[in-house]
Amino acid sequence: xxxxxxxxxxxxxxxxxxxxxxxxxxxxxxxxxxxxxxxxxxxxxxxxxxxxxxxxxxxxxxxxxxxxxxxxxxxxxxxxxxxxxxxxxxxxxxxxxxxxxxxxxxxxxxxxxxxxxxxxxxxxxxxxxxxxxxxxxxxxxxxxxxxxxxxxxxxxxxxxxxxxxxxxxxxxxxxxxxxxxxxxxxxxxxxxxxxxxxxxxxxxxxxxxxxxxxxxxxxxxxxxxxxxxxxxxxxxxxxxxxxxxxxxxxxxxxxxxxxxxxxxxxxxxxx
Length: 271
Known about the structure:
This protein has helices spanning 38-52, 75-83, 85-104, 119-127, 154-162, 164-173, 179-185, 197-210, 213-223, 225-228, 231-244, 248-259; strands at residues 13-19, 22-27, 59-64, 70-71, 109-113, 116-118, 130-134, 138-139, 177-178, 190-192.
């Protein structure tokens, strides 16, 4: 059934309750591969607080509509961040809240990742408690290609999941990771065939929803202290990312991406 109460004012996310105690979030902009505009970015950051206090939710599934999980932020939002300090400050706050709100949400979260998974959508995909990737998944952290530091979730969790050497390789070079590679690296919990992805996500969410609520939530809370103690690392990475927006590198990176060409970064910038 379609959710029509707590979440009725959300526009970028569609809600339904496919199983008892399970709330499913669908990033719902398939024509643009579920890229997030300013409204969608804010909603994805805020929704976890609402879920945390929803007594009818025992477990969560997050997925993308159409052929992608999420293509990240759209070009309009990127241009706005580059050009407007107030927008940059607002999106920085949302990016911070997105990570901490997911970490602090007491309800177990399952992500079902297929196709491209980039940007803010990737934050939710990899910070989920159980991450399930289809073989078609293409996980990319593309920050440095945009001319900004790898902020968002990258520094707080990639080294913990796949080790520092692999984290640096993929985050500095923006090398994509398939679903199978992500499972082998430890970046996701499991990889499955595309045609069983949604079924598997619901199966796991159903088990979590039927489990002992306090035991599961306290286990999540304790384990997430690994992430909380890395908070200063995350805060630094996010600050450096947003310091980069508005710079010549960021403007060239976004322009190159829009024009589908190789970026030409200035070699003489002193940092």
